[in-house]
């Protein structure tokens, strides 16, 4: 599987294009849907799904453009639906220009569901903490973990200072992910990737 990282939106969210046999799955299209589409078209890829690792606006504002352009499913954990509904107001609160409402429906995913892109299998893990519906996506074949805002390069962990966050849940989620092979590459929602072996329990 080929992985392309695009920096999107005002907070430079990592949007990942997961490419296998001409198909592409899109993870965390935080904004700039037209830019993501241009890259997909330039590379002559066939989009098959789009997924947000959690419901914060900087991980999903591009879903309108992608779903409406390609008629593909949008996956997200249902426990973050309330954040999806707040995406427009949250984005505008953080002094972004006026943004459109999320007009497309999501398909719920949770622990154990497996997504496919060009024959490459990616398993969903429930990893609450930063938000109630945080998820990770893992490719065993590629030893690649897409973890959203669960954990970051240098051992930094996701924020839990919001009313709906839980440090205990975050701690348990990280502990679970650390059971994956140590050579797994962690692809976070922001910043650079790292080896799982460089991340420690909290």
For the largest beta-sheet, the strand count, sense and barrel status come to: 6 strands, mixed
Q: Give the terminus-to-terminus CA distance.
A: 31 Å
CATH fold title: Metallo-beta-lactamase, Chain A
Task: Evaluate the radius of gyration.
Answer: 16 Å
- Helix share, percent: 10-25%
Contiguous helical run count: 5
Q: Report the mean per-residue pLDDT as an integer.
A: 94
Our count of domains comes out at 1
Quaternary class: single chain
Domain Metallo-beta-lactamase: 12-190
Organism: Candidatus Daviesbacteria bacterium RIFOXYD1_FULL_41_10
InterPro entries: MBL_Glyoxalase_II, Metallo-B-lactamas, RibonucZ/Hydroxyglut_hydro
Cofactor: Zn(2+)
Give a structural overview.
Residues 12-190 form the Metallo-beta-lactamase domain. By secondary structure, this protein is α/β, with parallel strands linked by helices. The chain has one domain (2-198): Metallo-beta-lactamase, Chain A (4-Layer Sandwich). It is built from 5 helices and 12 strands. It has helices at 33-42, 63-70, 81-85, 87-93, 167-177; strands at residues 2-8, 13-20, 23-27, 46-51, 74-76, 107-108, 114-117, 120-126, 135-139, 144-148, 185-188, 194-195. It has a 6-stranded mixed sheet, with helices on one face. A 6-stranded mixed sheet has the order 7-8-9-10-11-12, with no helix packed on it. Helix 1 (33-42) packs across helix 2 (63-70). The model has no long low-confidence stretch (mean pLDDT 94).
Quick rundown:
The chain has 202 residues and is α/β, with parallel strands linked by helices. The protein has helices at 33-42, 63-70, 81-85, 87-93, 167-177, and strands at residues 2-8, 13-20, 23-27, 46-51, 74-76, 107-108, 114-117, 120-126, 135-139, 144-148, 185-188, 194-195.
């Amino acid at each position: 599987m080929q992985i392309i990282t695009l920096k999107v939106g005002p907070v430079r969210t990592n949007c990942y294009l997961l490419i296998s046999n001409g198909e592409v799955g899109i993870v965390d299209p935080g904004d700039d849907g037209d830019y993501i589409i241009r890259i997909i078209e330039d590379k002559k890829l066939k989009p098959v799904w789009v997924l947000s690792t959690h419901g914060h606006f900087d991980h999903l504002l591009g879903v309108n453009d992608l779903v409406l352009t390609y008629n593909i499913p949008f996956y997200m954990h249902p426990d973050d639906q309330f954040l999806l509904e707040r995406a427009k107001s949250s984005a505008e609160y953080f002094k972004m220009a006026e943004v459109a409402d999320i007009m497309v429906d999501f398909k719920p995913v949770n622990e154990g569901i497996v997504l496919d892109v060009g024959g490459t299998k990616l398993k969903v893990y429930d990893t609450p903490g930063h938000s109630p519906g945080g998820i990770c996506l893992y490719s065993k074949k590629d030893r690649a973990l897409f973890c959203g805002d669960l954990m970051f390069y240098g051992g930094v962990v996701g924020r839990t200072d919001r009313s709906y966050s839980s440090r205990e849940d975050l701690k348990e989620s990280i502990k679970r992910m650390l059971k994956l092979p140590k050579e797994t590459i962690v692809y976070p929602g922001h910043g650079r990737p790292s080896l799982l072996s460089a991340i420690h329990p909290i």
